[in-house]
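Structure first, sequence second, as always.
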């Protein structure tokens, strides 16, 4: 059963590669997205599919809301003043992929590692910070796709 499933996975991977090779626009955006530290093949492909090659969403905030990583205030008039929360109506698959990317980016990207360290030292909860990193990753994805150039780590050039 495992060998049959592995063969099916290989055929699907080959079909995905053929589709990417057929469209230069998809291939270019894929290469731009994977230039960001922490984002891999599966997340890049999912982002391209979900956003219809970045035609469905105008900016990263709308996609963050769709993915369930944008915080919303929990208020009702003047009587209820709760904490900000993320929406339950989210694309759970994309959110889980972004969580994996955020964990990887925190480990390997010096800028996000410093950001995570500074926020947790201030006493901000780790999951809140991971959510902020997920949001930053989406912002970086939209930036490189709109700009058309690969991501450049800014920590390298800081004085």
């Amino acid at each position: 059963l495992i060998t049959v499933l592995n063969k099916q996975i290989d055929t699907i991977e080959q079909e995905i590669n053929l589709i990417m090779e057929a469209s230069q626009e998809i291939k270019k955006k894929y290469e731009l997205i994977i230039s960001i530290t922490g984002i891999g093949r599966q997340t890049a492909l999912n982002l391209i599919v979900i956003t219809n090659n970045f035609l469905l969403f105008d900016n990263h905030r709308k996609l963050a809301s769709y993915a369930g990583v944008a915080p919303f205030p929990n208020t009702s008039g003047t009587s209820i003043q709760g904490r900000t929360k993320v929406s339950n109506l989210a694309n759970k698959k994309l959110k889980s992929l972004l969580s994996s990317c955020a964990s990887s980016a925190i480990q390997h990207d010096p800028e996000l590692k410093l950001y995570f360290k500074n926020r947790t030292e201030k006493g901000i909860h780790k999951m809140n910070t991971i959510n902020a990193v997920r949001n930053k990753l989406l912002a970086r994805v939209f930036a490189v796709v709109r700009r058309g150039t690969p991501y450049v780590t800014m920590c390298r050039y800081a004085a």
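Margin note: Residues 126-147 form the longest helix (22 residues).
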